[in-house]
Design brief:
Elements: E1 2-7, E2 10-15, E3 19-23, E4 32-35, E5 38-42, E6 46-48, E7 57-67, E8 71-77, E9 82-88, E10 91-101
Antiparallel strand pairs: 1-2, 1-5, 3-10, 4-7, 5-6, 7-10, 8-9
Length: 102
C-alpha cells in the first residue's frame, strides 16, 4: 500500500515505514505530524482524488531537522573581472511514515 502526498509544494510517494525528507516544517522532534493533502492512495486499486482523496491522511513521526549538502552558486562574466561565489544549504525535516489512513 502506498500514497502520494503533497507537502511543501512537492509531491512524495510514501509507504508505511519510509523515511523521507521534506522542507522544514517547524515541528519538534518526536511529535506526530499529519499530512492531509493525499493526492492518491493505492491499496488494491488506485484511488485518485480530485484534487485530494476525501477522508485520507498520512501520519508521520518527526525524526529531526537538518541541512542538506552545500550547493555552490558561481556567477561569472567574462572580460569584466566579475566573479561571485556563494553557497546554499537547504533546511529539511526528516519524517518516518507511520500509517496511511484511507
Amino acid at each position: 500500500m502506498y500514497a502520494i502526498i503533497a507537502a511543501c509544494g512537492k509531491q512524495y510517494k510514501v509507504s508505511e515505514g519510509d523515511v523521507i525528507r521534506v522542507e522544514k516544517l517547524g515541528v519538534e522532534a518526536g511529535s506526530v505530524y499529519t499530512f492531509d493533502q493525499v493526492l492518491a492512495v493505492s491499496k488494491d486499486t488506485l484511488v485518485v482524488g480530485n484534487p485530494t482523496v476525501e477522508g485520507a491522511s498520512v501520519s508521520a513521526t518527526v525524526i529531526g531537522d537538518g541541512k542538506a549538502d552545500k550547493v555552490i552558486v558561481y556567477k561569472y562574466k567574462r572580460k569584466t573581472g566579475y566573479h561571485k561565489k556563494s553557497g546554499h544549504r537547504q533546511a529539511y525535516t526528516e519524517v518516518k511514515i507511520d500509517a496511511i489512513h484511507a
